[in-house]
Amino acid sequence: MTEEAIKSAGAAARNCGYDLPRSVVRAIVRTYEQAMWRPIEEARRDGSKVDLWCAPQHFSSGPGRVTDCWFSNGRWWRYDEAGDDQCRSEVWWATHYRPLPPPPGKEG
Q1: What's the chain's Rg over C-alpha atoms?
Q2: What is the average pLDDT across 3-27?
């Protein structure tokens, strides 16, 4: 959760006529962000990119997020640092996923 997300949510509430305390806005943003994570069993397996949350076995420092992953040939994948189709690696121990966030821009 970022301060920018909290500011944006507070501004959106004010634009709708609600003057919410910052603590309430923070709780709403946190709840929304946590609700975006879904069990990995529910993830689409059609090649769509998602973010994955992986258990501690994948990261020596504890659990963590892996961005822009996709499912193909029975496995989860991500691009390595080079970012081309030939440099990809398998992602292990995924427990949750979430759709990619929308790109920056105006809401429609």
Answers
A1: 17
A2: 91
pLDDT for res 15: 94
pLDDT averaged over the chain? 86
One DSSP character per residue, 55-72 reads: -TTT-TTS-EEEEEEEEE
Residues forming beta bridges with residue 66, ordered by sequence position = 52
Residues 6+ apart with CB under 8 A from 10: 20, 22, 25
pTM here? 0.72
C-alpha span between 21 and 2 (Å, rounded)? 17
Q: Rounded distance, CA 76 to CA 60, Å?
A: 19
Inter-residue long-range contacts of 21-30, CB under 8 Å, 24+ positions, other chains counted: 26/1, 29/1, 29/5, 30/1
Structure tokens at 22: 């910052």
- Distance in angstroms (rounded) separating the CA atoms of residues 3 and 6: 5
